[in-house]
């Protein structure tokens, strides 16, 4: 018996899906396009272009935890490796020691009250940094921005913070545009919203598993420990997002990385006990034939997920192909997801949307309530 009980039929049963998803996370994932359009309006109303006064900053520090931290990674991925200003994401209380008046700090918190983000935002004001705040209206983070006379972009809650990615990210992208660091225009944002709508249509709950790409991948990954490798900085950020959502939605552990470094650091996994478990017992064929396996649980196996960027480096393409062959030779299942589109934001959006649907469907397929991890553990005083 497998340690994870998978019920493929649940994914095609509308009533079962609704009962297993009490927080309606599938609806939250489907709100991505609306988040893009709404955030664009809120950002314009907030006058975010004010942060460009005084010229281009020396560096940008994005402060945020959970889904808010991913907004920083999304910004860096879209601006690209050639960005003229370094972009750093901080997920703790402290700003880098070098951050000062020449730098821009963007404090992001979906609920607007995350302790780490508030502490860093106050520190940014104390150091004289330029500051942009993004979070819930009427929150402590909004108060900090008002008191400091800095721009604040309100974000409407669309479920748990991890489901608010686009509402949190678009203000950062438009701020970068105001600074001349990216070409995310209104037209690009609308095309991106269209991509998100297309994925939502393909992956909608009413679409049956045999034609629904997210349900198919969820069932392929169920019961395994995914090793998720991106093939560029953009898809490397998506790999991190995937691993985090699998943990939060489906309580599923995963390993993530970016090729080519991930190959050197993690390829040994496929020759280890979890990799061997994918292909059999590790004994001889004769021993395996005569072993009574009725009462033996199936070992936990690995799966390899390759997030293929159409603009990856040619040498990385070769490494990706070798990695897929290497895994298949060891009977490790391989799933490949490919970006589509011309603009980096469109490519990233399609991939992230697919990933978010997969993680929720995986939770539902294995009987995990994806809303169970929404509430963060209460802090304990020492």
UniProtKB/TrEMBL annotation:
Task: Extract the Pfam families matched here.
Answer: bact-PGI_C
- Could you tell me the superkingdom of the organism this chain comes from? Bacteria
- Gene3D superfamilies assigned: Glucose-6-phosphate isomerase like protein, domain 1
Q: Give the keywords, sorted.
A: Isomerase
Check the record and name the InterPro entries matching this protein: Glu6P/Mann6P_isomerase_C, SIS_dom, SIS_dom_sf
Where is the SIS domain positioned along the sequence? 47-184
Q: Give the UniProt family note.
A: Belongs to the PGI/PMI family.
* Protein name (database record): SIS domain-containing protein
């Amino acid at each position: 018996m497998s340690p994870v009980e998978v019920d493929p039929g649940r994914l095609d049963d509308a009533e079962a899906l609704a009962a297993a998803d009490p927080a309606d996370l599938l609806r939250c994932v489907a709100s991505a396009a609306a988040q893009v359009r709404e955030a664009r309006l809120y950002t314009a109303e907030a006058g975010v272009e004010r942060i460009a006064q005084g010229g281009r900053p020396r560096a940008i520090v994005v402060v945020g935890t959970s889904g808010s931290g991913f907004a920083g990674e999304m910004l860096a991925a879209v601006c690209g490796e050639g960005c003229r200003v370094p972009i750093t994401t901080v997920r703790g209380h402290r700003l880098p020691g070098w951050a000062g008046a020449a730098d821009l700090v963007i404090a992001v918190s979906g609920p607007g009250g995350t302790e780490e983000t508030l502490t860093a935002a106050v520190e940014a004001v104390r150091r004289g940094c330029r500051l942009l705040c993004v979070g819930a209206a009427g929150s402590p983070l909004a108060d900090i921005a008002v008191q400091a006379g800095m721009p604040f972009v309100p974000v409407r809650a669309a479920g748990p913070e991890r489901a608010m990615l686009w509402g949190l990210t678009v203000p950062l992208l438009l701020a970068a545009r105001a600074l001349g660091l990216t070409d995310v225009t209104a037209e690009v944002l609308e095309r991106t919203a269209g991509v998100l709508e297309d994925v939502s249509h393909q992956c909608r709950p009413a679409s049956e598993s045999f034609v629904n790409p997210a349900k198919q991948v969820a069932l392929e990954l169920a019961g395994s420990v995914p090793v998720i490798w991106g093939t560029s900085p953009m898809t490397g950020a998506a790999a991190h997002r995937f691993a985090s959502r699998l943990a939060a939605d489906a309580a599923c552990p995963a390993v993530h990385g970016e090729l080519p470094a991930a190959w050197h650091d993690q390829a040994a996994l496929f020759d280890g006990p979890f990799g061997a478990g994918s292909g059999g017992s590790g004994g001889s064929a004769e021993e395996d034939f005569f072993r009574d396996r009725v009462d033996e649980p199936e070992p936990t196996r690995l799966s390899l997920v390759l997030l293929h960027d159409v603009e990856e480096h040619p040498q990385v393409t070769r490494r990706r192909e070798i990695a897929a062959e290497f895994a298949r030779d060891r009977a490790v299942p391989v799933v490949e997801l490919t970006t589509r589109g011309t603009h980096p934001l469109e490519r990233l959006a399609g991939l992230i949307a697919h990933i978010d649907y997969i993680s929720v469907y995986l939770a539902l397929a294995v009987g995990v309530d994806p809303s169970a991890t929404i509430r963060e553990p209460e802090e304990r005083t020492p």
